[in-house]
Amino acid sequence: MKKLIAFLLCALMVVSMFAGCAPANDGPGKNTYNLNTVKEGYLTVITSPDYAPYEFYALDANKTPTLAGFDMALAKYIADYLGLTLEVVPMDFNGIVGEMGAGKADLALAGLSPDPDRLLKMDFSDCYYEGKQAFITVSSKASMFTDLASTNQENVKIAAQTGTIQMDLAAQFSPNAQMTQLTKATDIIAELVSGKLDGAYIEWDVAVAYKQNYPELTIVCEVPYEAEGNVIGVAKGNADLMKYVNEALNKCVDEGTFSQFVATALEQAAGDNYQGLLGEDGKVPETEAESEAGTGAE
Ligand code: ARG
Predict the structure, then answer these.
(1) Whose CB has fewer CB within 10 Å in the chain, the N or C terminal residue?
(2) Is 22 helix (H, G, I), strand (E, B) or coil?
(3) What is the position in ligand 1's atom list of the atom closest to the CA of 184?
(4) Distance 112 CA to ligand 1 centre (A)
């Protein structure tokens, strides 16, 4: 009998050990509020992980990537609150609005600004972060720019990420400059650092995070933008989902958990990280070509 009990205890230990290791997304959640989602029991969240400290990949000593950033921590918090299993689908930012419009995701957490033009394709949660906008350059070109008006010259080469409100800002404040749109925030930084570009429009905190790895980046000035702050894109017309997402979001902010997410994201953004899409093998691509073949929707 004793032997049997010992055996059963052992078996139980092994089972619970594996339970501890099991990936979080191995089955649907209990769906506490009986919500209608794209995939029953799951919260499908789309993001564009080229945007530290919002969303990016943290790398461990073996260069194994894990999604990180305060948007991703918030996504997990909300999924847990709703009793849903989180499923994150990474893509390039310019795919996000269309994907929401096509009803492919429940939420978009992507450092999203509440641009009223997007309201046709999604609804907006309450604001969860006070982001602001910046015009950036590199230190060797800092003397070209004295203020926002100085960016508006024909000889100035600037860029913004495709599909972002920064494109609108560029058109508004630097209509005479030579404008390029790039799919990834990472490419904007690479082209700035290599001297191909003179300046770029980007979220302030993202500029600060990239600056940790590229100290030559220089913030010229803040850029005024009316629809300030960041929101979550919520599947259009899903009133129940909106209600409970806002409930979770406000709880997370009010109890101070969200500021911890921000602190952790800033720490991880200062460490080894990758910003962009992973290759089909789920690893950090080694070449540009591989990264183009990533899993993002075009
Ligand atoms: N806030 C800007 C917008 O909504 C840019 C967001 C870019 N996000 C990203 N994850 N790359 O248009």
Answers:
(1) N
(2) coil
(3) 11
(4) 5
